[in-house]
């Protein structure tokens, strides 16, 4: 689960450390692991998230142990990256122009106002962002 929204990360890999476990994803984004009884250490990883580690998880024979392993999103924010995908691209320019035109396009990062992607620091998408993104895509701005 994410450490901010507490939503499940369905693409995570969860495994025991120093043991053999079968990692079975469940449709709701959680996982089922079969591990030998005793104290178990777990590691989880997923693209876009920092790896997480939990030790001393007590596993008892014939019982189910439920545990949450929070993972932090790795955020590298680039100025002008409106959608948070693949850096500054023509898609960001299109999203910015739609926002300036008063539309509410899907694809704008949820944390845009709080992120460092804002070009002029006004916490909104405006003409400054459109110009910056077009210059960046054209290669006239670094």
Characterise this structure.
- By secondary structure, this protein is of the alpha+beta class.
- The chain has 2 domains: 1-74, Immunoglobulin-like; 90-138, no CATH class.
- The protein has 2 helices and 5 strands; from the N terminus they run βββββαα.
- It has helices at 90-100, 127-138; strands spanning 13-16, 22-25, 31-34, 38-46, 49-59.
- The strands form 2 sheets. Strands 1-4-5 form a 3-stranded antiparallel beta sheet, with no helix packed on it. Strands 2-3 form a two-stranded antiparallel ribbon.
- A hairpin with a 2-residue loop joins strand 4 (38-46) and strand 5 (49-59).
- Helix 1 packs antiparallel against helix 2.
- The radius of gyration is 21 Å and the shape is elongated.
- The two termini are 36 Å apart.
- The relative contact order is 0.13.
- The model has no long low-confidence stretch (mean pLDDT 82).
Keywords:
142 residues, alpha+beta, Immunoglobulin-like, 2 domains, three-stranded antiparallel sheet, two-stranded antiparallel sheet, 2 helices, elongated
Average pLDDT, all residues: 82
Q: Which class of the largest domain in CATH terms? A: Mainly Beta
Alpha carbon gap, first and last residue: 36 Å
N-to-C SSE series?
A: EEEEEHH
Strand content: 15-25%
